[in-house]
């Protein structure tokens, strides 16, 4: 109820801004977000290259960074009609954004839930629930300046769970946006509607930025046939009393972010996100359908302070506190997981050998408290079936603390056209074995337009709550990754790259909602990423990307609770079985291509296609589904931005997804379901 009141208040206030503000003179407004001078690098006359920090904790271009890196800028996000992280990443080589009933399951280089997602360099995901991400409407892109992407392990600088890669959403600041930008949007199907406002001010010595947004609409329109399950006594209701028919409620999202900077040495930021997403789950080819709701309230407060010791060295102190809750309601049973994290870090940065050497080293401490981490046992659809008149799902809960102290350092040295780098991190855990992560590599530019990168790195992933529930100190998964990239960029009109990668995962474990945890094994994943961007004319940009991935290793093996038998004497007997699944790569072939045409300064048109190869159905009792694969599919998307439509500073944006309305079966949690239909979003944006 509180979320509904907040949302309605925000929506009514924000939707009036773009419609009720009088037109201002063109010379009294800022034409849009502009990067500060030190955020760009002039590589070619009149062209600017975006910079990123997550590769080395220093500002560098993706070309020069000691990692396989990419940057997606704000203008590109708008032109592509990308409003969430998952939409922004689905055309990036190496990423598969697989739809699920509750949201998006991310794969990077064939590894599900292996990406560390950051907002303003603060992690926005759960340590124990790997499938809990803020990458859909819970983290909108209205206030995004750019998205930084690293492919490959990043534990040396960013600690645990920087496993397959890192994605950091960089918000705007008062230096980027001076004035106010507001907008209202409407989307179909589902009556999606909402509003946002961004306000920034640059006072010279200080600057500030504030962003507010809200969204409401139907996330899922599939009907349910089980609407109640548990009686007043805690036992299952008779099967005839469970049945009914209803539809999910509307999903609601509220997001607030603020930033304040002073004197170039102090930065304060914070975020509050509230959301609820109702959806429908099915099993048995749709024979059973029930409702669930997920809410993931999240907030953080962050402080950064920097002091220059001299012209070559500086100290930087970072501290933040985060709180995340996962509110999961299944029909009429609700569980809430809570995570609180306190983090502090001191980093020393120094330039050596007249600028040829660059060292970054630091000390950090993290304390995380996790309460009521739920562990569902058994096969949930089996409990809901009419054949079960007795048992309710068993849900275990576990509490624990996670403490980690870390020492880390990375050094990079330039010898003419060659850059060498190496890094080391040692994490000392209170409830896990100590972990050491390393990276090393070389970057070589034999000519100005060529860049060769060879990189090796290791990382690890923290255990699932099921593993921690045993009270033991399990050894976490560890990945060894090698990357070789050759890039050619003769000028800003042409960018091409080819990247080969090899990844070996030791002590690999997957969590299945039916079978629990797989037995540890070893997987080797290898593949190729190809990417090209061509600008044949100043008004036309073309891009294409292809990812091929394969693996070798044993199938995933599970020992799971198959049935519970109530004996005549009242005792309960548990029956266990074993099952195996192939490793879940997501898809072995991904392809994307598109074009952006700007025939006028006021108009840009974008058309793109996405192809996903056939995928294995990694589902329980999959033999009952009559198929073992979800077929390959193509999807066509389009977007348009029309600037200054009614007055200077007022833009109309149109985003069309799957505009050919081609539906295809896709793997869900317990069943297959149809992919999203044709969707359309219309945005009216005003700068004043």
UniProtKB/TrEMBL annotation:
Question: Any keyword Aminoacyl-tRNA synthetase?
Answer: no
User: Which residue intervals define the domain TonB-dependent receptor-like beta-barrel in the entry?
Assistant: 263-640
Give yes or no: UniProt keyword Protein biosynthesis: no
Q: Which GO terms describe its biological process?
A: siderophore transmembrane transport
In terms of InterPro entries, this protein maps to: Beta-barrel_TonB, Beta-barrel_TonB_sf, Plug_dom, Plug_dom_sf, TonB-dep_rcpt-like
- What are the recorded GO MF terms, alphabetically? siderophore uptake transmembrane transporter activity
Per UniProt, what is the membrane topology? Answer: Multi-pass membrane protein
Q: Where is the signal peptide?
A: 1-25
Where in this chain does the record put each TonB-dependent receptor plug domain?
64-166
Keywords assigned by UniProt, alphabetized: Cell outer membrane, Membrane, Receptor, Signal, TonB box, Transmembrane, Transmembrane beta strand, Transport
GO CC, any one term: cell outer membrane
Pfam families, per this entry? Plug, TonB_dep_Rec_b-barrel
- Compartments where located: Cell outer membrane
What protein family does this chain belong to? Belongs to the TonB-dependent receptor family.
Q: PANTHER family of this UniProt entry? A: HEMOGLOBIN AND HEMOGLOBIN-HAPTOGLOBIN-BINDING PROTEIN 1-RELATED, TONB-DEPENDENT OUTER MEMBRANE RECEPTOR
Q: What is this protein called?
A: TonB-dependent receptor
The lineage, from the top, is:
Bacteria, Pseudomonadati, Thermodesulfobacteriota, Desulfobacteria, Desulfobacterales
């Amino acid at each position: 109820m509180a979320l509904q009141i907040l949302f309605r208040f925000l929506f009514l206030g924000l939707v009036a801004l773009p419609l009720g503000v009088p037109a201002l003179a063109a010379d009294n407004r800022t034409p849009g977000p502009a990067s500060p001078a030190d955020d760009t690098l002039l590589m070619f006359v009149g062209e600017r290259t975006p910079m990123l920090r997550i590769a080395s904790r220093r500002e560098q271009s993706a070309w020069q960074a000691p990692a396989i890196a990419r940057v997606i800028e704000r203008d590109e996000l708008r032109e592509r009609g990308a409003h969430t992280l998952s939409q922004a990443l689905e055309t990036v080589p190496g990423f598969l954004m697989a739809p699920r009933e509750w949201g998006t399951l991310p794969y990077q280089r064939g590894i599900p839930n292996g990406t560390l997602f950051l907002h303003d360099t603060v992690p926005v995901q759960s340590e124990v629930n790997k499938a809990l991400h803020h990458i859909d409407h819970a983290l909108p892109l209205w206030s995004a300046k750019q998205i930084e992407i690293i492919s490959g392990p990043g534990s040396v600088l960013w600690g645990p769970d920087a496993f397959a890669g890192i994605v950091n959403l960089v918000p705007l600041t008062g230096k980027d946006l001076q004035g106010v930008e507001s907008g209202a949007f409407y989307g179909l199907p589902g009556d999606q509607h909402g509003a946002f406002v961004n306000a920034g001010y640059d006072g010279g010595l200080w600057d500030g930025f504030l962003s507010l947004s809200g969204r409401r609409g139907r996330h899922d329109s599939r009907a349910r046939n089980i609407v109640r399950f548990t009686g007043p006594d805690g036992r299952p209701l008779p099967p005839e009393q469970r049945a009914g028919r209803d539809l999910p409620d509307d999903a609601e999202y509220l997001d607030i972010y603020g930033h304040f900077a002073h004197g170039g040495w102090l930065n304060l930021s914070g975020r509050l996100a509230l959301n609820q997403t109702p959806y429908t789950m099915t099993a048995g080819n749709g024979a059973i359908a029930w409702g669930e709701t997920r809410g993931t309230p999240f907030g953080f407060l962050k402080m950064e302070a920097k002091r220059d010791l001299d012209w070559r060295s500086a100290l930087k102190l970072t501290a933040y506190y985060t709180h995340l809750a996962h509110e999961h309601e299944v029909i009429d049973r609700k569980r809430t997981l809570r995570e609180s994290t306190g983090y502090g870090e001191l980093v020393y940065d120094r330039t050596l050998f007249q600028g040829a050497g660059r060292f970054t080293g630091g000390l950090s401490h993290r304390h995380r408290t996790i309460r009521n981490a739920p562990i569902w046992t058994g096969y949930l659809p089996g409990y809901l079936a009419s054949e079960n008149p007795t048992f309710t799902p068993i849900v275990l809960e576990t509490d624990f603390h996670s403490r980690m102290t870390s020492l880390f350092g990375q050094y990079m040295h330039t010898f003419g056209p060659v850059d060498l780098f190496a890094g080391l991190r040692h994490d000392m855990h209170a409830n896990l074995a100590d972990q050491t992560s390393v990276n090393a590599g070389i970057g070589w530019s034999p000519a100005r337009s060529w860049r060769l990168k060879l990189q090796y790195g290791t990382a690890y992933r923290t255990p699932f709550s099921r593993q921690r529930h045993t009270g033991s100190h399990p050894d976490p998964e560890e990945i060894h990754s090698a990357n070789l990239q050759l890039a050619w960029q003769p000028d800003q009109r042409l960018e091409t790259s080819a990247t080969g990668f090899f990844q070996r995962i030791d002590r690999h474990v997957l969590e299945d909602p039916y079978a629990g945890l797989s037995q540890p094994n070893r997987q080797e994943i290898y593949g190729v990423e190809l990417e090209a961007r061509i600008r044949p004319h100043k008004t036309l940009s073309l891009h294409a990307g292809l990812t091929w991935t394969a693996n070798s290793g044993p199938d995933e093996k599970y020992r799971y609770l198959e049935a519970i038998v109530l004996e005549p004497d009242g005792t309960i007997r548990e029956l266990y079985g074993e099952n195996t699944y192939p490793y879940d790569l997501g898809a072995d072939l991904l392809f994307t291509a598109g074009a952006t045409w700007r025939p006028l300064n006021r108009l840009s048109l974008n058309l793109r296609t996405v192809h996903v190869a056939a995928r294995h159905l990694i589902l329980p009792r999959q033999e009952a589904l009559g198929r073992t694969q979800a077929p390959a599919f193509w999807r066509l998307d389009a977007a348009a931005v029309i600037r200054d439509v009614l007055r200077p500073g007022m833009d109309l944006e149109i985003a069309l997804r799957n505009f050919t309305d081609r539906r295809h079966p896709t793997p869900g949690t317990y069943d297959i379901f149809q992919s999203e239909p044709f969707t359309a979003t219309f945005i009216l944006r005003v700068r004043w």
